[in-house]
Amino acid sequence: KQYTDYVYAVMIPRITTTPPSTSLQDDFLISAKIGPVWFRWMNFGPSFKSRSRTVNDIFRDNLPISGQLGTMALFVAILIGMPLGVVAALKQNSITDYIAMGVAILGVSVPVIVMGPILVWIFGVELKWLPPTGWGAKPPYLLGFLPSKIGWDFFKYALMPSIALGLASSAVIARLTRATLLQTIREDYIRTARAKGLSERVVIVRHALKNSLIPVVTILGPLFAALVTGTFVAELIFGIPGMGKYFVTSITNRDYPVIMGTILLYAVFLVIANLIVDIMYAYLDPRIRYD
Q1: What's the confidence (pLDDT) of residue 144?
Q2: What per-residue confidence (pLDDT) applies to 133?
Q3: Are 24 and 124 found together in one domain?
Q4: Which residues contact 243 (CB under 8 A, 6 or more apart)?
Q5: Are 158 and 69 in contact (CB under 8 A)?
Q6: Looking at the domain assignment, is residue 160 inside a domain?
């Protein structure tokens, strides 16, 4: 009884002015035994803010959008960061190295909350090349999260938020790629490969780069999980109806089912991403095997 009164005092005043009812207790399992709660733990119940929608409905409608945005942002980060890191390592202490690392530092120094409005103002308002807000993919989605049609109508909405998100992550990837590649190309087996007469391209791509990617792959797992579930700043700036936007508004609205569900979802993504990273270790370095 004391626990039930506490839950009412904390949650109910923010969502309704009517006294708590029996149906409300049934919806949120406030007075239920631990057994029913345990077996229904994946059902987070209705949202406090939108009683007509359950948390699972919100995930089904909005998580695919965040997944698409996070995947594209990660692709942009890899596409920019890895070539910059490789070029900077191969041209160490040259003007090319300084320019590449300058771009990386710029990416770290300019957060999404600054880069987003700049891109919107230049390409959306002044040049009118890209739409400033919205998202191109509409349900139904292939396999539950992939856009059914991938074309210019999709990319014109995704380019600016993906670049704004991916630029900061590309800076981290570029600096880490440069550091690990510089260490790898000084190893004895790289000297042996060059002494055998292999071309510089084969030495770098097949031997040096592949073995130097392990630290980079290590950070890609948590980075992907964060981009999929934590893109709320970009979603607010570009008006994207993703999970990040719902997560922030759920905190201010004390929408506890959405908060708990999103945190659990992030944990699941983190575990899966780290599992994929561990599997990729064995591919990148044949000395690593899992028995």
Answers
A1: 62
A2: 85
A3: no
A4: 58, 59, 62, 63, 65, 66, 228, 229, 262, 265
A5: yes
A6: yes
16 shares its domain with 127: no
> According to DSSP H, which parts of 12-94 are helical?
22-28, 34-39, 55-90
Dist. CA 191–CA 175, nearest whole Å: 24
The distance in angstroms from the start CA to the end CA of the chain is 52
Q: In which residue ranges of the chain is pLDDT below 70?
A: 1-43, 139-140, 142-145, 148, 229-230, 286-291
Kindly report the CATH number assigned to the domain that includes residue 122: 1.10.3720.10
Domain that includes residue 29, residue range: 2-33
Residue 217 lies in a domain: yes
Q: Which long-range contacts (CB under 8 A, 24 or more apart) does 125-133 make?
A: 130/156, 130/157, 130/159, 130/160, 131/156, 131/157, 132/160, 132/238, 132/239, 133/238, 133/239, 133/240
Q: How far apart are CA 63 and CA 244, in angstroms?
A: 9
Does residue 24 share a domain with residue 141? no
pLDDT at 39: 58
**Alpha-carbon span 161 to 169, nearest angstrom:** 13
Residue 291 lies inside a defined structural domain of this protein: no
Contact (Cβ atoms closer than 8 angstroms) between residue 221 and residue 60: no
The C-alpha angle 37, 42, 45, rounded to 5 degrees, equals: 75
Domain count, the chain: 2
Rounded to whole angstroms, the maximal C-alpha distance in the chain is 82
Q: Are residues 206 and 73 in the same domain?
A: yes
**pLDDT, position 266:** 83
Three-class secondary structure assignment of 201-222:
HHHHHHHHHHHHCHHHHHHHHH
CA distance readout (Å), 173 to 65, 74, 105, 180 = 24, 10, 11, 11
| Structural domain contains residue 170 | yes
